[in-house]
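Hi all, long-time lurker, first post. I run a small reading group and we've been trying to get comfortable going from sequence to structure in the token notation. Rather than ask abstract questions, I figured I'd post a concrete chain and ask someone more experienced to write out its structure so we can walk through it together at our next meeting. Sequence below, copied exactly:
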Amino acid sequence: MPAQIHRLFFALRPDAALLGEIGCSVQALKAAGRVHGRWLQPEKLHMTVQFLGDFAVADDIARRASHAAAGLHFAAFEFVLDRAETFPRKFNPPCVLRCAGNSEAALQHFAHELGDALAAAGMAEFLESRAYVPHVTIAYAERELPKPMALAPILWRAQEFCLIDSVGGAHNEIARWTLHA
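-- Answer (accepted) --
Happy to help. Here is the structure in token form:
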């Protein structure tokens, strides 16, 4: 039996009220009939802020990442999700919720600061080199959307972030930190 892979990442997770708003948008997308595919379960919805990688054994990396995150001091912030689109991929393109362009700066800044904290803790090798594209994956579609679909704006007040270990189909929260006002 092959060992299970641990996928570690830092994320923002929606609270119950926000999850309800996202659920309304998902229902609107389903009702519009433009997105068909495999929809994610609500407990898996999140916005990845820093992806660390896939590991056979993740304990030491999770411990080091948690230590780095614990030293981060960042104020709570807001951003708005305002559209659904698909990322280009030949099979099952991810259907995602994206940020309004004018509200993304604080989220980008937070991701950068967390990356700097991880790098300062000697974890630069685990950081992705590609540009950060904030999104919430809601489904894996049968085909790409021809263009983004506008949605009723969803205000996300980021007040905490967490480290998640995704293993065996479950998202296990390792630790959670408050963003200070």
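A couple of things your group might point at:
The helical segments are 16-32, 59-70, 105-120.
The two ends are 47 Å apart (CA to CA).
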